[in-house]
Amino acid sequence: MDKKVKKCDLYDRDCIDCGECLFCDYDPLKLCDNCGKCIDYRYEDDAIIKIDRIEIDKK
Question: Quick check: is 58 in a domain?
Fold first, then answer.
């Protein structure tokens, strides 16, 4: 049975479990807490985010 290799969210490579993707873009010493500061606010009431993939856990 082949184990699916997780891809890195930041770089074009397989995941090496470095944890870099868990840190805040604005404060590199802080773990991401989903504050939303990294979302591109272009309009007063709307936020725009780019979704590059959706993963579904198959149990």
Answer: no
